[in-house]
Amino acid sequence: MIIHSKLPDVGTTIFTVMSQMAVEYNAINLGQGFPDFMMSEELIALVNKAMTDGGNQYVHMNGLPLLRERIAEKVEQLYHNPIHANDCITVTPGGTYAIYTSLTSILQAGDEVIVFEPAYDSYIPNIEVNGAIAVRISLQFPSYNIPWHRVKASITAKTKAIIINSPHNPTGAVLHESDIVALREIVAGTNIFIISDEVYEHLIFDGIAHQSILRYPDLMERSFVCFSFGKTYHCTGWKIGYCVAPAPLMKEFRKVHQFNCFSCHSPVQYALATYLQQPTPYLSLGGFMQQKRDYFRSLMQQTPFTLIPSHGSYFECYSYAGFSDEPDKALATRLTKEKGVATIPMSSFYKEGTDNKVLRFCFAKQATTLEKAVERLLQ
Ligand code: GLN
């Protein structure tokens, strides 16, 4: 059989490649982003309870109504936006799915979508599988700020959407109010949608407030905002998140969603509806993770890597330009095989493989894991 591939240039995601290599060489995995410590026992017990109480059948295709109400309450408290739980929130199997579904709901063949590189690796294939075109704009190096003048210059009659992501994966960069002002100026009076990937909303450090699109009603009317419980509650393998969008946009989103996932894992939704009533776990997450970041930073000072400072996500980027001109993929492979530490080479997040000699490290790990990894790097 011959398949005319929809994604002829796409290989296996770098996260799987590096995690597999880490297993093969028994390396400490600071590559793929996931915590190596236990999640809340209380939340696990709530899932068990939901199962034994009989919460094992389909819930509503848009998500358990009570969970959506609790999400709406959280959004109102955090971002002062009274969203309608019934019309504007859909529970999804993870943030990546929410982003894919948003794009699929709006894209027609030939549409253009503005994407910033380095870009999380699902964005461009999500655009291209829909027959649309990714218009790639490089973030300024090494600040990883958005060059808004270039965005303005890239808008055409075919621009259908702009994807933003703060805190940013893979760089950890965060958007500031000035970015929102620039974005607002560009989209005002157009039909351009915004896809806002906010899966790291609570992983923001150094006293900076998260610039959620949910704070801005004028931007919200054109936006799909995507979130992840996996990142918030240290359970990335649960694959559960949600999308928030205005009713007319969400209506289209649900047309795609209902024939794809239909409804998400029920027991987890019952459990989250209860657990979400406590704000402490998500409100304390930034402080908890900042401690890890600061500890990792202090350990990395002993190495020849140079920090590229950032304020969010669970990643930090380090330059090795000071001690090697090896391609980043070669270095990441060598560190995994020879030193036993897996990372992610940043060129994987550029379609043309731009190599600024930077590696991404995930610091969402136990202190002992971080210590061992840096010890290995120093050997
Ligand atoms: N979001 C995670 C990361 O950036 C990986 C998710 C995945 O493996 N698809 O590392």
TrEMBL record:
Pfam families: Aminotran_1_2. Coiled coil: none annotated. CDD domains: AAT_like. Residues 27-377 form the Aminotransferase class I/classII large domain. Keywords: Aminotransferase, Pyridoxal phosphate, Transferase. It comes from the Bacteria. Its cofactor is pyridoxal 5'-phosphate. One of its GO terms (molecular function) is pyridoxal phosphate binding. GO terms for cellular component: cytoplasm. Belongs to the class-I pyridoxal-phosphate-dependent aminotransferase family. This is Aminotransferase class I/II-fold pyridoxal phosphate-dependent enzyme.
